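From the pipeline queue, job 12 of 40. The input is one protein chain; the requested action is below.

Action: predict structure.
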Amino acid sequence: MRLFIAFWPDSEIRRQITSIQMRYSGSGKPVRPENFHLTAAFLGQVEENRVPELHAMIEKIQLPRTKLPLDRLGWFRRSQVFWLGCRQTPEALLEAVLDLSRWLEVAGFKTDNRPWQPHVTLYRKMRTEPEIIDPAPVTWPITSLVLVASETRPEGVKYRLVDQGEVV
């Protein structure tokens, strides 16, 4: 299974992100709203028998009672990704994601060593930088982490939540 650990938005946050995304239609390929998320840790290919271990790690993470202000748009030139992120990530949230990375490394999972830059991908394959006007903030209450499977299909990527070994 190709897996990652993420913060998953509720329907209201998803609706607000979609309204921002719709203002920037153009040269890129839009991410479907049901695929919006904030990746906390990308794991890649993982054996199914390790899923319970990952769920146990996720449950140990002490998430701060915080809200993440998504108040900044940006464009990754090399990967051609247009995204919604934040100017200032709450320190306690950065620490929680760092704890998760440490536990994953100890358990033998490969993790990205770059600093965590929380963002929601709005468009892929956006070849030219759009005119960026930062939006009114989307205030995302951080409540939980989820384990997600990434499935490549003819119609595009589909993300599905994984529940103790079963994709739901």
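Job complete. The chain has a mean pLDDT of 90.
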